[in-house]
Specification:
globular, 218 residues, 9 strands
């Protein structure tokens, strides 16, 4: 089945113009921060979101959603596979976060609209992209440059570990995004704590679903 890649590209270029790259929120009022991550079973996307207290980094709420993937994984178009499940999980939350961290790129993307930016626009929330590998651009010192623009900053959160690529998702500046990521790291974990917990939660749900499948087949 062919997928409308050309239409996706056009939409990304259009949406990228709407990304707000400044602090469009009150930093001093932030109380809850969430991380979102995904796991997969066959053609299903498991989206897990964990909300944490900004001061203690303890989880205050967890939600998940499982949906059929509308498209397979296509590099550069992760949002079109994963975001429907993520949006559903987010809307289940009773405690809405002030900032959302996403295990994906924000504007550090070939069309300046990775999944972190896509979700920020859809959910209208300050969003930070936290990625492990670059998908475009060149590294200069601790910055990622793409088309003469600084699109991400490299942040080493653990000694001897490879740095993370921190980028603007939506409604936040790069400087503030980096500040929050550093604040949210809880040693010895490499990822900011809300993302670390979301990753573990997504894996836990996946294991539980696989166990269900196994029992149903017996």
């Amino acid at each position: 089945m062919p997928y409308p890649i050309h239409r996706f590209k056009e939409e990304q270029i259009k949406l990228a113009r709407r990304v707000i790259k400044r602090d469009d929120f009150d930093k001093s009022a932030v109380k809850l921060v969430a991380g979102v991550d995904t796991a997969y079973i066959d053609n299903k996307v498991i989206a897990a979101v964990v909300v944490c207290d900004i001061n203690t980094l303890e989880p205050v709420e967890r939600k998940y959603a499982i949906k059929e993937a509308p498209i397979p994984y296509i590099p550069g178009f992760l949002a079109y596979r994963d975001s429907p499940a993520i949006v559903e999980a987010f809307h289940l939350l009773e405690k809405k976060p002030d900032i959302l961290l996403v295990d994906a790129h924000g504007i550090s993307h070939p069309r300046f609209l990775g999944m972190a930016s896509h979700l920020g626009l859809v959910l209208d929330i300050p969003t930070i992209g936290v990625a492990k590998k670059k998908v475009c651009g060149q590294i200069q010192d601790d910055k990622l440059i793409y088309k003469d623009k600084i699109v991400a900053q490299l942040v080493q959160t653990r000694e001897y570990a490879k740095p993370l690529f921190i980028s603007i998702g939506h409604r936040i500046s790069l400087k503030t995004a980096v500040e929050f990521v550093k604040r949210l790291v809880k040693p010895p974990h490499k990822l900011p704590e809300p993302l670390h917990l979301a990753h573990r939660y997504a894996d836990k749900i996946r294991e539980r679903e696989l166990e269900k499948q196994k029992k149903n087949q017996e």
